[in-house]
Design a protein that fits this description.
heterotrimer, A alpha+beta (98), B alpha/beta (313), C alpha/beta (401), B: 313 residues, Rossmann fold, 8-stranded mixed sheet, 8 strands, globular, C: Rossmann fold, 2 domains, 18% strand
């Protein structure tokens, strides 16, 4: 962490794009989102995705594998803001104390 | 461009995880939607502000596109230089990319106030770039001070609500219209709740020749004293109450009201937007009842005028 | 068997040019990619001339007629960050308005060339020459070179790109000329042929530019843990300038036969008193030296050119045999023990076992004429102080008190 002036690129330039991934913000979280897949439209048919679109921390990972729609939180980065829970049209997400 | 949900979700991130914007900040979502609108190689210039500071705390950067910050009041000038530098090198055969989009980002302080001269100059000169202001209604980065974008009745640390004052008294600058008065090809207001409208407009902004301006609404839970979960709800209410109506201005003349605003039968009371925020709490005391009504009247009058300009009944 | 090639000096043209016009012509020949500038007297001719080159289709430069000097430097930083060769020009209030971004240009290590037609700062408003503007920016991380003639302004502008863009340096550079005295006076200037300048300056090879294939972050927030390290880098880069400056000048001399050095000495070898100054007063001082020498006075002139970085070690050597150094400078640093140029000179001499006396004369503020009589007055005062063995820290000359 404490590199010498001769060991770092000039002028504060950061050469590795997106290396903030190394900085985990999950520790900020006071409440943790919990996803109930039962009524989730993404799980059902790969639509909606509002939680993912509105997540400020890219902490909701939506994917599709073998025709199945998958849903996962990345708790390394989720700050627990609760936007996903507030915006879910089917109330699939609840916030629980850490 | 494809507006299919799956394609939007697969758009490469411009701003990755690990940034240190506050929980529930609207700005990262605004950036995400900008990222979903991109059409090719892009360089981003960022004015000093929350977004700049909290996304690039050395030795970390959350940015995945070439990104530059120089100072607070000059992002439009920096972007001018990048655009013309690339143009010159292209003409001399020294630049490998055929086209690069250049985007300048500023907060409301950096755009409405201190950066306005540089913005106006860049618009007049007509460089081909997109300027986007993410407007969270105050100098949130320095600790919630009033700006030209602060709403009347809003309490900030330089427009306190007290026995004698209702928070800021002055109206908010109509920045989109001021910018449009430069007769640039494209100006639009956007809101993260209406993400499809946002992406469509941002893409248009990239595609026009010459400068384009995007005024994005960006709630700030810290400064507004709102629940972090209410950010997108507040963004929706801003449109529904007429605080941030959605429209486009083409060539500085032609006003087009956008779907989400156009489809409103009537505005919701501004109270609905205000009551979710601690910064307007004082307006709900008897002392400032009249002031709150005046704010409502102003918003309603502005809305009626906008409808007229857009030719909407 | 190799054929014998007869080497001939490239033939350019000889023109009568003002200092501003000479700089504009040099910028044209250096094939800059972007010129971003705002008009301010007495620099404006540079921008005007360059816009004429543009209008006549003689340059492929993108000229950005910005709305302020702050934006002029900001646009330069943007263009330079993208990898372009860029220049701007300013003076006085314009340079003051640029202040904030001067530090950004150097801190971001952008090799921007900034021509300055030195002019007094307001208030009261005044359009004439002194050095308050660029002296005020002496800590901004810009290389500073002060020219005495239009020819030197032309030559220095060309060399400045090579110095600034050198990968061991990567710092912005100011080429300074005295407002009106040089900026608006026509002198004989030998211009090099375009291809000679082109070959000499080459094409800029940027280091870590904004590149969509290699996305980097430039200008992040650096706090207590790293800011200092970048200032250490910047300081090291500035110290590299001495060597690079000498190398570039040596190469320039090979091509043109002309060189100036980090400073110039005139009849200093056996001098008891060396008058130290730069820019236009240096010319006057040389004429005064000739006259005084005829009267048997042992006096010489040291004309500074490179002010940042300041060649303290060489200077100390050069001045060590003199009994006194009389500094003439066009800047007043209110409340300071002494003024910027003398401050540097005194520091340079401090470690000498036998220190010459240093006198400091503030002259010519706001373009007040600095005639030979003023230089002679300073010389005579220095002689008296030498006899007394004591001198004031500084005095103003040529002002009604």
């Amino acid at each position: 962490m404490s590199k010498k002036s001769s060991e770092i690129p000039m002028a504060g330039n950061i050469l590795e794009p997106g290396n903030a991934r190394e900085y985990k913000t999950g520790g900020w979280r006071a409440e943790r989102p919990k996803h109930n897949p039962e009524d989730c439209l993404w799980i059902k048919n790969g639509t909606c995705a509002l939680c993912c679109i509105f997540c400020p921390d890219n902490a909701i990972k939506l994917s599709e594998k073998d025709g199945k729609f998958l849903y996962a939180y990345d708790y390394d980065y989720c700050k627990g803001c609760g936007i996903c829970a507030n915006e879910c049209p089917k109330s699939c997400i609840t916030m629980e104390a850490e | 461009m494809s507006m299919k949900l799956k394609d939007l979700l697969q758009a490469p991130e411009v701003l990755g995880s690990g940034h240190r914007m506050c929980a529930g900040c609207g700005a990262p979502t605004v950036m995400k939607l900008m990222g979903m609108s991109l059409r090719g190689p892009t360089i981003v210039c960022n004015a000093t502000g929350c977004l700049e500071v909290a996304t690039t705390i050395y030795p970390y950067t959350a940015w995945k596109v070439p990104w530059i910050h120089v100072a607070f009041e000059n992002v439009a000038a920096v972007a001018s230089g990048i655009v013309e530098g690339i143009n010159a090198m292209q003409e001399k055969g020294r630049y490998k990319q055929e086209h690069v989009d250049v985007i300048a980002l500023g907060g409301d302080g950096g755009t409405f106030d201190i950066g306005f001269g540089a913005l106006s100059g860049a618009l007049e000169r007509g460089h081909d770039f997109v300027y986007m202001v993410y407007d969270n209604g105050a100098y949130q980065n320095t600790g919630i001070q009033r700006s030209g974008a602060t709403l009347p009745g809003q309490e900030t640390t330089t427009s306190w609500a007290g026995k004698a004052e209702p928070g800021k008294r002055q109206r908010k600058k109509p920045i989109a219209e001021i910018v449009a008065a430069h007769r640039i090809p494209y100006v639009a207001t956007v809101d993260p709740f209406h993400y499809r409208d946002f992406i469509t407009k941002f893409r248009k902004a990239l595609e026009v020749e010459g400068p384009a301006f995007i005024h994005a609404f960006s709630p700030c839970p810290r400064g507004w004293r709102s629940e972090s979960s209410k950010t997108i709800e507040l963004a929706r209410l801003a449109v529904e109450t007429g605080i941030h109506p959605l429209y486009e201005i083409i060539d500085g003349e032609q006003y087009i009201m956008s779907g989400p605003s156009k489809s409103l039968k009537e505005l919701k009371p501004v109270d609905e937007f205000m009551k979710l925020q601690g910064q307007f709490k004082h307006l709900f005391t008897p002392q400032w009842e009249d002031f709150r009504k005046q704010v409502q009247q102003q918003i309603t009058a502005d809305w009626e005028l906008l409808k007229k300009k857009c030719g909407v009944e | 068997m190799a054929a014998t090639v007869k080497m001939t000096k490239p033939k350019g043209s000889i023109e009568g040019l003002t200092g501003d016009a000479a700089i504009a012509y040099a910028l044209k020949q250096c094939d800059i990619d972007v010129l971003s500038a705002y008009p301010i007297t007495p620099q404006t001719i540079i921008v005007e001339d360059y816009q004429r080159f543009f209008a006549e289709g003689q340059v492929k430069t993108k000229v950005i007629p910005v709305e302020s000097e702050h934006s002029a430097m900001s646009a330069c930083i943007g263009a330079s960050a993208a990898g372009a060769r860029v220049a701007t020009a300013s003076a006085s209030a314009g340079l003051a308005l640029m202040w904030e971004v001067l530090y950004c240009a150097s801190g971001m290590r952008q090799p921007i060339v900034l021509a300055v037609a030195n002019r007094a700062l307001s208030a009261p408003i005044n359009i004439h020459n002194d050095w308050s503007d660029s002296y005020g920016a002496r800590d901004s991380g810009f290389i500073q070179m002060y020219c005495q003639s239009c020819q030197e302004a032309y030559d220095t502008t060309i060399m400045s790109f090579r110095i600034a863009e050198n990968h061991n340096v990567l710092l912005p550079a100011m080429v300074c000329i005295d407002g009106f005295i040089l900026s608006h006076n026509v002198e004989r200037v030998e211009l090099l042929p375009d291809e000679v300048v082109r070959d000499f300056v080459g094409v800029r090879v940027p280091v870590q530019p904004l590149d969509t294939d290699k996305p980097i972050t430039m200008g992040p927030l650096c706090l207590t843990d790293y800011y200092f390290e970048f200032k250490e880098q910047e300081d090291k880069a500035m110290r590299e300038v001495f060597k690079v400056y000498k190398d570039v000048e040596a190469e320039f001399q090979k091509v043109t036969g002309r060189s100036y050095g980090m400073y110039e000495t005139y009849k200093t070898k056996d001098a008891d008193i060396i008058m130290l100054t730069h820019s236009s007063p240096a010319g006057t001082a040389k004429a005064v030296v000739d006259a005084l020498r005829e009267q048997g006075e042992k006096v010489g002139v040291l004309r500074m050119k490179l002010f940042r970085p300041f060649p303290a070690a060489e200077l100390a050597k050069e001045l060590s045999s003199a009994k006194a150094v009389a500094v003439f400078e066009k800047c007043l640093s209110f409340g300071a023990p002494t003024n910027p140029l003398a401050l540097e000179v005194r520091t340079a001499l401090y470690d000498l076992p036998k220190k010459p006396m240093v006198t400091d004369f503030v002259v010519g503020l706001g373009g007040r004429d600095v005639p030979p009589a003023t230089i002679v007055e300073g010389y005579n005062k220095t002689k008296q102080y030498l006899e007394k063995g004591k001198a004031p820290l500084y005095e103003t000359l040529g002002v009604r008190k």
